[in-house]
Design a protein that fits this description.
The protein is an alpha+beta fold. The chain contains seven helices and eleven strands. Among the domains are: 80 residues, lambda repressor-like DNA-binding domains (434 Repressor (Amino-terminal Domain), Orthogonal Bundle), CATH 1.10.260; 104 residues, no CATH class. The radius of gyration is 35 Å and the shape is flat.
Length: 291
Amino acid sequence: MEESFGEYLRKERERLEISIDEVAKATKIRKRLLIALEENRLDQLPSLTFVRGFIRLYAQKLGLDQNQALLRFEEYLKKIHPELLGEKPKAKPPVRVWRIILPAAVVLMLATVAALSVLGHRGREVQNQPVNQLPVDIKPGKTPETTNPPALEDKVISPPFLVRVKAIEICWLLATIDEKTSREATLYPGDSIEIRAEKRLSLLLGNSGGAQVSVNSALLNQVGGHWKPARILLPEDLEKYLPQGFKFQIETGAGTKTQPPPGTEKPAEQKASTVKTPSPKTANPDTGKIQ
């Protein structure tokens, strides 16, 4: 009987004397997902897109040819699970472009004519205005005072964290909340999920370039690359991904405490030591002795 794809991976791993825990640590894939892959339990794995990514990382750890491993997997699917491959979607009927462009062009032309007529009317009003006429609220010889706008303060991000992940492309995620509970989900383009953590959050993204992550309504900078896994830890990694105009603070009993970026802590100021200067000695006028 021909061995299955999962058996092939397991035998290669055992031949190299590599434990499943070592593979999980190197690939950042949860142990139970790797076991499901070796046991061909595809129903307990995310979509095929992520399974193929798991296989690449697994083969890389074992030193196998990644393309050959993927070809084995595709052959296994065709024989055992052809329904998972599905059919290509039917092509949609062509859209008559002129039906969309023509009305838009007419509206744009009318808007342009209206704008030009308004601008021409205003231009004639400016030309007819006397040159020596001054505005009522400005006196000759005085320059109107200008005030600088107040400086905008940075918006503060502090625990608890409300994290929202929106998928631009298909994306698998695993969240560990306050080191107690875990949530796992597969998001398709347009899907979103909200996760609340009181103090700490570990968020693993399978396709980090295909997801937008926001924390307390602040949209973070890009976490990772296209089709590459990435992990973000809160609050440790928050400073790296916060956009301009936001800062991270930790609430304490006495108010809020700003969390500085790593490596920028200032040393405590040293108190200047004081040296007492002895008072000058004087001679007693009666005895002549120096006191």
